[in-house]
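Q: Sequence in, structure out?
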Amino acid sequence: MKFKISWPTGIIVSIVAFIIFILSFVYRVTFMPEYDHHLVSEEYYKDELNYQQEINKLNKAAELKENISLKKVDEGLLIVFPSEFDASTIKGTIFFQRMSNDKIDFKFPIDLQKNEFLIKDENLVSGRWDVKIDWTANNTSYLYKEKLTY
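A: Exactly. Output:
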């Protein structure tokens, strides 16, 4: 027995198969937790309103003689603040954000004895991090941002 399919039936079967194929992907992305999609920030619109303040802080930091530097050392990641400021006057926060997994993001308050801050190796997972250091010295606010591969 030979099985023959006419060309209009073949076209309809291929279109239906394609639609089922696409809908399976839509289902996976929408309902399966491994394809969790979310905004980079939960407060995206609030962050957008403060963006001009960030630009001003970044410009002030760029005008410094020496900006913050990040160095990988044996113990972890060493953050060196500008030596022109007294360490006791530097306050703020250090925020590490992982774009691929927001569950491992972390934040440290800045409280220095000397112009260095060490983040221990066990706190950092290897991969790409967005580092944001929002700090104040002598009543002036500064911001440092860097994309870091650890």
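The radius of gyration is 25 Å.
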